[in-house]
Amino acid sequence: MQITILDAYTMTHGRLSLDVFRELGEVRAFDRTPAELTIQRAAGSEIVLTNKTIIDGPVMDQLPALKFISVMATGYNAVDIEAARQRGIIVSNVRGYSTFSVAQHVFALLFAVTNKIAEHNSHVKSGGWSANPDWSYTLGTTTELQGKTLGIYGLGKIGNKVADIALALGMRVLAHHKHPERDARPGVSFVDFDELLKNSDVLSLHAPLSQQNQGIINRRSLALMKPDAILINTGRGGLLVEQDLVEALRSKTIAAACLDVMEQEPPPAGHPLFSLDNCIITPHNAWATKEARQRLLNESVENVRAFIKGQPRNVVS
Prior knowledge:
Layout (H helix, E strand, L loop, with lengths): L1 E4 L3 H4 L13 E4 L8 H5 L4 E4 L6 H5 L6 E4 L9 H6 L3 E3 L6 H16 L2 H9 L23 E5 L3 H12 L3 E5 L11 E3 L2 H7 L2 E4 L13 H6 L5 E4 L8 H9 L5 E4 L19 E3 L8 H19 L9
Parallel strand pairs: 1-2, 1-3, 3-4, 4-5, 6-7, 6-9, 7-8, 9-10, 10-11, 11-12
């Protein structure tokens, strides 16, 4: 089998080995593939792996050998699933590989706000502690999370892991979720969306993006939140309207926002959120611990192996 990996770099970061794929067939691997080179690079391949490189109907039509697409991610919007179905092309994805890493990142972002870690580190190293008359000081108020309310929008695998950590910290946990009866669990109270907004000291977004929730965090919803609330988005950038968030942070409608995802990635230089002291942004790397990337690579290999055996797994329908 001829196997083409179109955008390996985000998975491997140049450090994890792709050699295991070479046990399964002839492999061509590219760190990144611009759209104009997709057809040329995938030509003749029965199996193509992609992360963000688009494979739509017109691309599929130029790849008559293509039989299987393995998406190196949970989200599969880079592939036109209906076009693949019409052409008899099987599509698989990888689920659950980043649950622990993303949940960890949520709290890394939250602690950065509540404990002012970066600010204190910078102040100490610039001489602030050495010059201080006291043995202990804080740069403004730091916050204890015990007793605070964490709201979770979307209680899937990652949302549940975030809930576990919050409960261990002594937080109260609220959730808004599509299937509250099916997914009920101890320690989590399900509420409607407006109640989630009004009662959360910290609101963490974990729902997949859909037409129904595009821009669900907007001027109206932000206005319902507490003025000292912290918004965290490690889900999808499209869940919030960025300009509305800019205005809410400038006017102190909410206290702070922590983002790992944005509407456009990479974002344009000079984005208005970059200039705000009460906004922390990381470059969509909550999922990208070495351990999570290794799980992603291993599962992608198993997807390919299963397809070759005629027993495809993790099939997207």
